[in-house]
Specification:
The chain has 184 residues and is mostly helical. Helices cover 35% and strands 0% of the residues. 5% of the residues are buried. It has helices spanning 3-27, 43-52, 124-147, 160-164. The protein contains four helices and no strands. Pfam families: NDUF_B8 (PF05821).
Length: 184
């Protein structure tokens, strides 16, 4: 293969790769209807924005217009998916949401594998008391174990062949009498 055709092949592959990436990126964006519009200033704009996001006008509250670019996107409650009914017939059961329902701006933070905002069945004060009580008790027990050590009663280790007298370098002529540790 000549150098010119190899170079041309690389350029063609590079061009196709760029085109495929461009197509993939342009197809993965949000639709024009789902992008936030301008911040609503009049009650009519507010009602139109509430309708756009499938919310009642009473429930619709946009993010404050402080220059962060939220536009007319609704400010939804900071609730994790754990708080949503697991037995309801959701359109997307793994996300516990229905089709067309607006997503929280930080949706990825409130997934079931992340932050859980559901109320705890036990108050925090009780949890702290239990934690510090357990840690304090364990520290006290470790202190007492260091102060008053206890040892398991054990007998000296027994070896066969007269406690390995010859194996430990004993004189065979002066071998002591074999000790019987048991009788059958």
């Amino acid at each position: 293969m000549s150098g010119a055709s190899l170079k041309l092949g690389c350029v063609h592959v590079h061009y196709c790769f760029q085109k495929c990436i461009f197509i993939a990126v342009s197809a993965s964006g949000a639709t024009k209807d789902s992008l936030p519009g301008a911040y609503p200033k009049t009650p009519e704009e507010r009602a139109a924005a509430a309708k756009k996001y499938n919310l009642r006008v009473e429930d619709y509250e946009p993010y404050p217009d402080n220059g962060e670019g939220f536009g007319d996107y609704p400010k939804l409650q900071d609730r994790s998916q754990h708080e949503r009914d697991p037995w309801y017939k959701w359109d997307h059961p793994d996300l516990r949401r229905n089709w067309g329902e607006p997503m929280h701006w930080n949706f990825d933070m409130y997934l079931r594998t992340r932050v859980d905002t559901s109320p705890s069945p036990v108050p925090w004060s009780t949890m702290w008391k239990q934690l510090f009580g357990f840690v304090g008790f364990m520290l006290f027990m470790f202190y007492m174990g260091e102060k008053f050590p206890s040892y398991q009663p054990i007998a000296p280790k027994q070896y066969p062949y007269n406690n390995l007298y010859l194996e430990k370098g004993g004189d065979p002529a002066k071998a002591p009498e074999e000790v019987k540790n048991y009788e059958i």
